[in-house]
Amino acid sequence: MILVILMILATAAYRLLSHNWNATLSPENAMWNVAPFGAMALLGGIYFGRKYALWVPLAALAATDLILNRLMGYPLFHLPRLIDYGVFAMIGLVGLWARSRGRGIKVGAAVATPFAFYLISNFGVWLFGLSLANTPYPKTFAGLAECYTAALPFLRGTLIGDWAFMAIFVAVVMLVKNTSQERLGWLVAETKA
User: Fold this and answer.
1) In whole angstroms, what is the distance from residue 12 CA to residue 158 CA?
2) Which residues have a Cβ under 8 Å from the Cβ of 10 and sit 6 or more positions away?
3) What is the tally of structural domains in the chain?
4) Residue 192: inside a domain, yes or no?
5) Cα 14 to Cα 64, 99, 103, 121, 149, distances in angstroms
6) Residues 17-31: pLDDT tens digits?
7) 130: helix, coil or strand?
8) If we measure between CA atoms, which residue out of 61, 77, 82 comes closest to residue 127?
């Protein structure tokens, strides 16, 4: 449980600090969407205890959303954001499903996570959001294609963030598990199905 709390605090701190750092860069150099939430959603399902697997990553996301929205002068809650929460919950459910499966299934889920987020969240942007020109996307196939094309720079950050943080999270969990069950086993929540 302690490891879960530390990972959540690190995830939230990273999101808040990186958001401020990205704001100081030119748009072409910013690394938007490099965040640990896709990784934490999937690996929460795989490694966190069942009672923490879904709600803990979503709570961390919601808390940082509230802080960032407040700091940036946005409304505290943005209804279309529920789609993103739904995608992260779905990814967490995939993690729960994959936890008792082989390594190949887990790796496949890890590879698919950023693409699932990109496809589903941007479908939501197309349905409910605005284009970069601050106008609604046309509800046509061309409008959907325009939305996905506009989101490609964010996919780069999602890929980097999800896969890098997955590697870090798995390395930390394996290090803790292998260090000594007697000394550090209490840091890891339930890991069996």
Assistant:
1) 16
2) 36
3) 1
4) no
5) 10, 26, 28, 21, 27
6) 776 555 555 555 556
7) strand
8) 82
Per-residue pLDDT tens digits for 86-127 = 999 999 999 999 999 999 999 999 999 999 999 999 999 999
> Which amino acid does the sequence have at 138?
P
Best CA proximity match to 45, nearest among 133, 126, 127, 105: 105
Helix axes 55-72, 37-47, angle to 10 degrees: 160
Q: Which of 42, 28, 2, 55 is nearest to 161 (CA)?
A: 42
- What's the CA dihedral at 68, 95, 110, 60 to 10 degrees? 10
The C-alpha R_g of the chain, in whole angstroms, comes to 17
Q: Is residue 117 assigned to a domain?
A: yes
Per the structure, the complete domain to which residue 74 belongs is given by: 2-23+32-187
Residue whose tokens read 């790796």 = 107
